[in-house]
DUF1541 domain-containing protein
Amino acid sequence: MKKWKLLSLMLITAMGLSACGGAAAPDVLEQVEIVPKPTFTVGSEVILKASHQPGMQGAKAKIVGAYDTTAYSVTYTPTTGEPPVKGYKWIIQEEIKNHIKQPYNPGTEVVLKADHVKGMLDASGKLDTANTTTVYMIDYTPTTGGGEIKNYKWVTEDELSPAK
């Protein structure tokens, strides 16, 4: 298991920046458990059902990593002074500052250590939902055009379907 964790960390680090604000923080990837036999294996192609961003739904994607954790939708106030972001999907357990091992309950107030988008790092937020699941890091090209988005964090298993 440790070999796969190290291999995954090396692969993600080598891939560089993500569309979600930079490569996943190494300390997060060291803490999250890699799924040894996920439904969608690393390297497999999938179709996105998620609509987190324009051009995401229906796009083809490649699985870069699969992790066992708790995924949360969160409402947070960006540190940039912009209005609150409601229902952001997803941050994971390991992206909560001073996180505990047990999943948090919806309604818990937290400080984020995720840096998916500008203003997220160190932002205060409230967890809207909690879902203990497999989360995936993906590479995809939006259906709206533009370049490939690498190391997008995160989509859940129910937001993916097999590519045909």
User: Anything to note?
Assistant: The two ends are 30 Å apart (CA to CA). Residues 2-15 form the longest helix (14 residues). The chain has two helices and eight strands. The chain has one domain: 2-162.
